[in-house]
Amino acid sequence: MVDKFNVSEFVKSFSEGCSKTQIKEFHRGETITTYLVNRNQLCILLSGTADLVRYDINGYRIVTERFSKDSIFGEIFYDINTNSEFVVEAKEKCSVLFFLYDDINEKCKANCSYHKKLVASMPSLIISKILDLTSRVDLLSRRTTRDKLLGYFELLSKKYGKTFTLPFSITELANYLSVDRSSMTRELSYLKKENFIKQDRSKITLLY
Asked: For site-directed labelling of 130, which of 5, 65, 72, 143 has its Cα 20 to 30 A away?
């Protein structure tokens, strides 16, 4: 079994850093990275929140993923040979660690313990990301808006408990679940009337 990777302990454990990695700060609204072909960049969000935004050929902005502390993202997880542009944007002040996947098996000049720890932790990082993507695919494969909403609420409840705050606006959530906004709003109303959920603005409580 692969040990769970603790990002906080990992960052705290190094003193001089590694020549193969960079840590950068970003303010709200700034672009953290743009997914490019063959760059193979992999990032870890050390603090803050950020959105993976897709711009379609008409310039329409769609939030496809929201990243929080310890999230992993980068080109290696996505097929970017499309007509859409993928951009990671800071939702608030963020700190991000960057490195190239191609550098994983190359020793840095200092042969630092930081880089050794990163190499040893890669299986856990990749597995964690695969599980996230599997959950996303499961949500999108559900046939009805109700099933998608309840599935998403159940994912949040496993992480935060029966009461949680939606990380998305209503429009962003509809985009994230690939459903019509009006239909989703109606379904939320039905779920409240049928006592599946209690809603106070962005706060949701599961009643089942």
From this structure: 143
Distance of alpha carbon 72 from its chain centroid, rounded? 7
pTM value is 0.70
Q: Which of 4, 46, 38, 39 is nearest to 22 (CA)?
A: 46
Who has greater pLDDT, 21 or 177? 177
Contacts of 9 (CB under 8 A, 6+ apart): none
Q: Quick one: which of 64, 73, 71, 12 has its CA closest to 47?
A: 71
Q: Can you name the residues that pair with 44 across neighbouring β-strands?
A: 72, 97
66 phi/psi in degrees, rounded to 5: -120, 130
The DSSP line for the chain is -PPPP-HHHHHHT-SS--TT-EEEEE-TT-EEEE--TT--EEEEEEES-EEEEEE-TT--EEEEEEE-TT-EEEGGGS---SSSEEEEEESSSEEEEEEEGGGTTSPPTT--HHHHHHHHHHHHHHHHHHHHHHHHHHHHH-SSHHHHHHHHHHHHHHHH-SEEE-SS-HHHHHHHHT--HHHHHHHHHHHHHTTSEEEETTEEEE--
d(CA 44, CA 184): 32
Residues 171-189 have pLDDT tens digits of: 889 988 989 999 999 999 9
Residues pairing with 63 in the sheet: 53
| CA–CA separation, 153 and 167 (whole Å) | 11
